[in-house]
């Protein structure tokens, strides 16, 4: 079953090669994520990202993940890589989200880190300007990476919550726990990175297929 025909839409993040993208697409993923953050073990160069993006079949959305990018970085990536969605995973403000949307002409998904109920107001704040929200686990203080840490949060915080834009659940999801996460939160979109890896930055095609199947 292809991505758009599935009940839930899955994003496999941190893909680094054409083989990774093919594995995600064949498994039925709706989105493939490319990380433009030099400190990440999943970082891709513009050339690697272009090759990976061109391997995505029609109907699979190519997501560029950025952390507080400046305009020059966005321009350089977008000149070479055919992205469909920009993911902002840093300390961007709502005003910056609006500027990135206007400058790139692409929809923007803003990541919001959650560790407790006090963080939920941030989702409301960004839902007014972003096209989608990525509801992710908040990294531990001093963590090297702002995402992709394999850390989850208490999914019960999301029970009964509704937002005016589509949202995606992320953070510590695996083939083994994704069905429970869906059952508790009602998430229709799911994002995973380290839970489908054999090692940081090394995707495992078997785990990708198992994750998409378990997401439903
Ligand atoms: O994955 C990274 O290396 C990364 C680096 C910098 C910012 C964000 C990053 N990943 C964000 C994602 O979209 C992940 O899919 C999401 O945080 C969930 O990650 P995981 O808990 O590993 O499934």
UniProtKB/TrEMBL annotation:
Boundaries of each N-(5'phosphoribosyl) anthranilate isomerase (PRAI) domain copy? 10-213
Q: What is its EC number?
A: 5.3.1.24
Keyword Chloroplast in the entry? The reply is no
Which keywords describe this protein according to UniProt?
Amino-acid biosynthesis, Aromatic amino acid biosynthesis, Isomerase, Tryptophan biosynthesis
Q: Which reaction does it catalyse?
A: N-(5-phospho-beta-D-ribosyl)anthranilate = 1-(2-carboxyphenylamino)-1-deoxy-D-ribulose 5-phosphate
Key word Isomerase present in the record?
A: yes
Any single GO molecular-function term of the entry would be: phosphoribosylanthranilate isomerase activity
What's one GO BP annotation on this UniProt entry? L-tryptophan biosynthetic process
Q: EC top class, in one word?
A: isomerase
Highest taxon, organism lineage: Bacteria
The metabolic or biological pathway listed in the UniProt record of this protein is: Amino-acid biosynthesis; L-tryptophan biosynthesis; L-tryptophan from chorismate: step 3/5
Give the family, as the similarity comment puts it: Belongs to the TrpF family.
Name of the protein in question: N-(5'-phosphoribosyl)anthranilate isomerase
- Native organism: Rhodobaculum claviforme
């Amino acid at each position: 079953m292809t991505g758009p025909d599935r009940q839930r839409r899955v994003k496999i993040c941190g893909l680094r090669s054409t083989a990774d993208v093919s594995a995600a697409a064949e498994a039925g993923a709706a989105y493939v994520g490319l990380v433009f953050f030099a400190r990440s073990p999943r970082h891709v160069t513009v050339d690697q990202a272009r090759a990976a993006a061109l391997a995505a079949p029609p109907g699979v959305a190519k997501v560029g993940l950025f952390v507080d990018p400046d305009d020059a970085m966005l321009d350089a990536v977008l000149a070479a890589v055919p992205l469909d969605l920009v993911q902002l995973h840093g300390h961007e403000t709502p005003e910056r989200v609006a500027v990135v949307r206007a400058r790139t002409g692409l929809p923007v998904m803003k990541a919001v880190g959650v560790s407790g109920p006090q963080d939920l107001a941030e989702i409301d704040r960004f839902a007014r300007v972003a096209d989608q929200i990525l509801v992710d686990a908040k990294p531990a203080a001093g963590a090297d990476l702002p995402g992709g840490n394999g850390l989850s949060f208490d999914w019960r915080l999301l029970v009964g919550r509704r937002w005016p834009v589509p949202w995606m659940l992320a953070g510590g999801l695996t083939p083994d726990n994704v069905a429970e996460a869906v059952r508790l939160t009602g998430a229709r979109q799911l994002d995973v990175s380290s839970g489908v890896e054999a090692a940081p930055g090394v995707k495992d095609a078997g785990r990708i297929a198992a994750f998409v199947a378990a997401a439903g």
